[in-house]
């Protein structure tokens, strides 16, 4: 199956995954994340501002701040992804990919990011990832030296994915089930 077809299927599966099973899955994934050494040791965590079909990252951001961690989120500027720091006072607007982004665009050095929670539509346990198709994370991860983790909701975990040479692996894929 081609990536474009699989992306459509995965979006439909995620949009249909609602209710108490999903809530329990998300809670289990957050608990697993918070128990990792990577989370415990990270001072700077990169995470997306989730859309309704994605795993809700608001509790992750709140937990990071409560633990004294710096949170950075992606922002698309001139067709390039950069990470910018956010705080509880940060103001947001809908950005290039219909995702919430901070109004400011002061880039945060990727060398200072300890942990990237990598978004995607599907993952394998070996770290393969199907992204949303723009290539932003593959380009970023090709040069990133820190830790990466993905939080795979039940419909996101697949046995195999169509992989291309430019696709970057995620260091650790957590599953809530």
Written account of the structure:
- The structure is a single chain.
- This protein has five helices and ten strands; from the N terminus they run αααβαβββββββαββ.
- 28% of the residues lie in helices and 23% in strands.
- The relative contact order is 0.20.
- The chain is α/β, with parallel strands linked by helices and 177 residues long.
- The protein has helices at residues 3-16, 20-34, 37-41, 58-66, 136-141; strands at residues 44-46, 70-77, 80-86, 92-94, 100-102, 115-117, 122-123, 129-130, 147-152, 172-175.
- The strands form three sheets. A six-stranded mixed beta sheet has the order 3-2-1-6-9-10. The protein has a two-stranded antiparallel sheet with strand order 4-5. A two-stranded antiparallel sheet has the order 7-8.
- β7 and β8 form a beta hairpin.
- It has one domain (3-175): 3-Layer(aba) Sandwich (Rossmann fold).
- The protein is globular and about 40 Å long.
Question: What key phrases describe this protein's structure?
Answer:
Rossmann fold, alpha/beta, 10 strands, ligase, six-stranded mixed sheet, ATP-binding, 177 residues, 28% helix, 5 helices
């Amino acid at each position: 199956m081609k990536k474009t077809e699989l992306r459509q299927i995965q979006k439909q599966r995620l949009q249909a995954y609602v209710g108490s099973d999903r809530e329990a899955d998300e809670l289990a994934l957050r608990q697993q994340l918070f128990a990792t050494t990577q989370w415990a040791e990270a001072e700077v965590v990169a995470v997306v501002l989730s859309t309704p079909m994605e795993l809700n990252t608001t509790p992750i951001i709140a937990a990071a701040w409560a633990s004294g961690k710096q949170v950075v989120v992606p922002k698309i500027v001139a067709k390039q992804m950069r990470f910018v720091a956010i705080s509880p006072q940060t103001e947001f607007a809908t950005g290039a990919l219909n995702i919430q982004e901070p109004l400011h665009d002061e880039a945060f050095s990727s060398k200072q990011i300890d942990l990237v929670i990598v978004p995607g539509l599907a993952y394998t346990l070996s770290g393969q990832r199907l992204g949303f198709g723009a290539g932003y994370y593959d380009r970023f991860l090709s040069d990133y030296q820190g830790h990466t983790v993905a939080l795979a909701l039940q419909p996101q975990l697949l046995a195999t994915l169509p992989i291309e040479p430019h696709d970057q692996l995620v260091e650790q894929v957590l599953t809530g089930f």
